[in-house]
Amino acid sequence: MENTRHMIGKYIVVRTLGQGGEGCVWLARDEDLQRLVAIKEMRGASQDREREKELMREADFLQQLRHPMLPVVYDLLWEDGWYLVMEYVQGMTLGAYIARNGCVQEEQAREWAGQLLDILQYLHTRKTPVIYRDLKPDNIMVCPDGHLKLVDFGAALRKSFGGHRERIMAASPGYAAPEQLGRFAERKGAGEDGTEEDGTEAGREVYADERSDLYAFGKVLYYIVTGADPARPPYTSRSIRDYQPMLSDGLERVIRRCIREDPCARYVSAAETARELAASGRRRSRLRRRPFVRVIEKQIWLTEG
Question: Which are the catalytic amino acids?
């Protein structure tokens, strides 16, 4: 019996990589260029004219992005439906990495945090800013060389698309900022308790901006240094120190400020967050051995006495 191969356009499908809300993602081979690619099915685009227009716009937008942490978009093709052809990113998701290896040491966590802030700064400072909106361990790939790549731009929002706010908002449990769930409205002069200056409750308007991505960044960083997934109990009832008592005060402060409920109480930009992260690292390098040395000296003194 003849062996038939599953083809999408000129691409030979190797296997399924995953299944999402918008459709399947396949690993495929481009025989002409002798390279592996990832092909994402854009389900529903062929039946919805508005969705089709949005897809074309998003594909054009993704092809314009150039950053080492972003997969390259090669093609948008029609084959009884629309498919997006992208660079195949080898490695495993950050979620799978932490599940297999456990939390990482602070030096590694700081390195990855710096990489994530770099890509967020790149997206946020585009001529038309890009809000990723769904930063979480399953959307971050750990490559074989140890560097990170950001994948799955299905939720990304350019601020010019339909205005600043949307009714439907990507909201991954444990990582989505409160404002993405309608728990805060954008406002000036709000207190850290989530109330207006006059004491009224915050509105329930759904929106996302740069600070929303920084909230998710803080939750991802928490997960990296503790191994505790914010999307699962008992995360909500335990502090960072319960999991990682040796974490530096500086890194803990960065995480805590990023994940404040009120957007106005967070860092205003990825650049500001990166500066604070670097400054806390310099302070840590000067102070990190002192407490340990004091403990050892005390133990020696007690033994000798």
Answer: 134
